[in-house]
Amino acid sequence: MTLSENPFFVLGLSVDTSRIEIEREAQKLLGMLELGFAAVKSYATPLGPRERTAEAVRAAVAALRDPYQRLVAEVWARHSPAPVETAPEPEPAALVETHAGARRTFGWRP
What pLDDT score does 91 carry? Predict the structure, then answer.
């Protein structure tokens, strides 16, 4: 299991989640993936967003059912850095304004 495949990240749950809540979340995610909801097609990890598949959700639930694998996943999830979220790309007009402001700051004329 790699950090990006941590079951808690795949399911989008905290390490304090009960077993019943894990099963419910997995069923919800599987249903939403089957229906093609875009909101559940990726998940955040400390290494950046990753693609969520039905196989990954099933593997995550299976790993969390095993007490030893759950303990290992909890340790890695608790001590990993915060998940990376991608920033939206700036609009081209915002870039032009930023460059114009920088030129003025350095004394350049338009």
Answer: 59
The terminus-to-terminus CA distance of the chain in angstroms comes to: 55
Q: Which positions of the chain have pLDDT values less than 50?
A: none
The position carrying tokens 């990376």 is: 84
pTM (two decimals): 0.72
CATH number among 3.30.540, 1.10.8, 1.10.287, 2.60.40, domain 3-85? 1.10.287
Q: State the Cα–Cα distance between residues 66 and 7, nearest whole angstrom.
A: 12
- Cβ distance 11 to 25 under 8 Å? yes
The answer to whether 110 touches 100, Cβ cutoff 8 Å, is yes
CB atoms inside a 10 Å sphere around CB 59: 15
